[in-house]
Amino acid sequence: KVESVDSLLKSSGREGEEVRVQGWIRTRRDSKAGLSFLAVHDGSCFDPIQVVAENRLHNYQSEVQRLTTGCAVDIIGTVKPSEGKGQSIELLASEVKVVGWVEDPDTYPMSPKRHTMEHLREHAHLRVRTNVSGAVARVRNCIAQAIHRFYHENGFLYVHTPILTASDCEGAGEMFRVSTLDMENLPRTDKGAIDYSKDFFGEESYLTVSGQLNVESYCLAMSKVYTFGPTFRAENSNTTRHLAEFWMVEPEVAFADLADVADLSEQMLKYVFKAVLEERADDMAFFAQRIDKEAISRLENIVDNDFARINYSEAIEILEKCKEKFEFPVSWGIDLASEHERYLAEKHFKKPVIVMNYPKDIKAFYMRMNDDGKTVAAMDVLAPGIGEIIGGAQREERLEKLDERMDEMEVPKEHLDWYRDLRRYGTVPHAGFGLGFDRIVSYVTGMGNIRDVIPFPRTPKNIAF
Ligand code: 4AD
Ligand code: MG
């Protein structure tokens, strides 16, 4: 039976037992005494297991001494207390079978030296073999599992919303068009232009920017729901926080208002951060040592303290009064730029802050109009070091008000009659938000660039892998 390196390193009282592990060589070191130390990893935890291979092995000279980083091995050995520092046990190998060699180790792109993030990005198909990308992969998985657990424990139903859609939820015109048209023989309008209205077997179709509109429909029957899937934005932005394809977690709660989902967002983030600290202490120690020395303390602070909460108008006052020199001038009505968001979270509050009730003119059509007629019940959760990680709102549940907003913003009603139906039949106040999943992974690990926390980033010029 094959054992994972993780379960082997975590267990105790195993001395003398024979075990089998399968994995890849991280490093090989030969000692003068006629033995080699192999560090073998299998992805199950940060640390590799140290394997001691002696020259009495039949293939010691012919194979063991030719092992290089990346070679795949299948090992049988006896568990022994380790004399080396940093590990409590090691394996004394009775058999080292080489399953896959690394051709031409000198040009192997994942050689054991330190690589730049750019180099790793250029080899996105191999980079998960490195310490850093392996640690990111485990933390990313831990966060995803914790999110599902959080919603499950709180009675939410997980809904699968569609990827192909006709509607632009955010109304920002950032949709990728999806076409089934014959490119050689494109249909034309009377004026000779390409007739895209025939895209999807006769309808316009796009990749979704958000699952929200569909998840609202489930909310208004199942009460507490969430969707968690890929979303797409065709924005040509080259920043460290934007992807063209990213994952979003979108809960939606019936009979709830903005304050309810602000609470929910805070509870969820604390639950997730706690899970990471408990379950991935090994990877987090690595991030704290090599990537961002505050990686652990930042999460601990968040778990232990309340988030700040302010209205948009107060946020503007703070920004107007502060001494900071901003690139974009501040006045009531502006959409907060990244520099403003970061100032609020990093310098003013020094912790996550939930900004609520934004001017209606900078927000989406579905947000609930406040009594002042100027602001809508929107919220953004801003975190130090990254800015917006969550965007949400109470939804406009009153049909007349929704229609007014749709007209005002020229949202095509014909595509959203089904959405308006939700207000015609048994409407209730409801609210929800979207968590940028990749942004949260970047926040937790301290990895500065969102491209380094998603396995195969999709950004302008990144489609090869
Ligand atoms: O603020 P956004 O656009 O909100 C919505 O899409 C709502 N329909 C969500 C809802 O209420 N159900 O996006 C939500 C979050 C942002 O706060 C951000 O963290 C992330 O999604 N996000 C991106 N992440 C990576 N790359 C991009 N291009 C992103 N755009 C938004
Ligand atoms: Mg937003």
UniProtKB/TrEMBL annotation:
Subcellular location: Cytoplasm
Subunit note: Homodimer.
EC top class, as a word: ligase
Aminoacyl-transfer RNA synthetases class-II family profile domain sequence ranges: 138-455
Species classification: Bacteria, Pseudomonadati, Pseudomonadota, Gammaproteobacteria, Cellvibrionales
EC number: 6.1.1.22
HAMAP family named among the record's database cross-references: Asn_tRNA_synth
Entry coiled-coil feature ranges: none
Protein family membership: Belongs to the class-II aminoacyl-tRNA synthetase family.
Main location class: cytoplasm
The protein's name: Asparagine--tRNA ligase
Source organism of this protein record: Microbulbifer echini
Catalysed reaction equations from the record: tRNA(Asn) + L-asparagine + ATP = L-asparaginyl-tRNA(Asn) + AMP + diphosphate + H(+)
Key words, A-Z: Aminoacyl-tRNA synthetase, ATP-binding, Cytoplasm, Ligase, Nucleotide-binding, Protein biosynthesis
PANTHER family: ASPARAGINE--TRNA LIGASE, MITOCHONDRIAL-RELATED (PTHR22594:SF34), ASPARTYL/LYSYL-TRNA SYNTHETASE (PTHR22594)
ATP-binding found in the keyword field: yes
Domain of life: Bacteria
GO terms for MF: asparagine-tRNA ligase activity
Keyword Metal-binding: no
PROSITE patterns named among the record's database cross-references: AA_TRNA_LIGASE_II
